[in-house]
Amino acid sequence: MSEKTRKRFIAGAVCPECQAMDTLMVFMQHNVEHVECVSCGYSKAKPDDKVEAATRSSENVIGVFKP
Q: Does the keyword DNA-binding apply (predicted)?
């Protein structure tokens, strides 16, 4: 089953990687917002607000103890 995504360009946006203007597109995939540059392939995903709220950003994990 394929999910149909609607990709939209972000007018005036500059790619943080290649600095090209008007090459960033935004789309939703599996309820996650993605931004991708059509020029250099840079991509970034923004997790859902519920996922961000569930993460504990105030904690730093140094390692996992295995007895």
A: yes
> What is the DSSP-derived secondary structure letter of residue 51?
H
Q: What is the DSSP letter of 52?
A: H
User: Comparing C-alpha atoms, which of 14, 11, 43 is closest to residue 27?
Assistant: 43
Q: What is the Cα–Cα distance from 47 to 63, expressed in whole angstroms?
A: 24
Can you say how many angstroms the Cα of residue 56 is from the centroid of all Cα atoms in its chain?
19
Q: What are phi and psi of 7, to 5 degrees?
A: -100, 130
Q: Please state, in angstroms and rounded to a whole number, the distance separating the CA atoms of residues 8 and 56.
A: 32
pLDDT tens track for 2-60: 456 789 999 999 999 999 999 999 998 888 889 999 999 999 998 766 555 555 666 66
The number of CA neighbours under 13 Å toward the Cβ of 39 is: 13
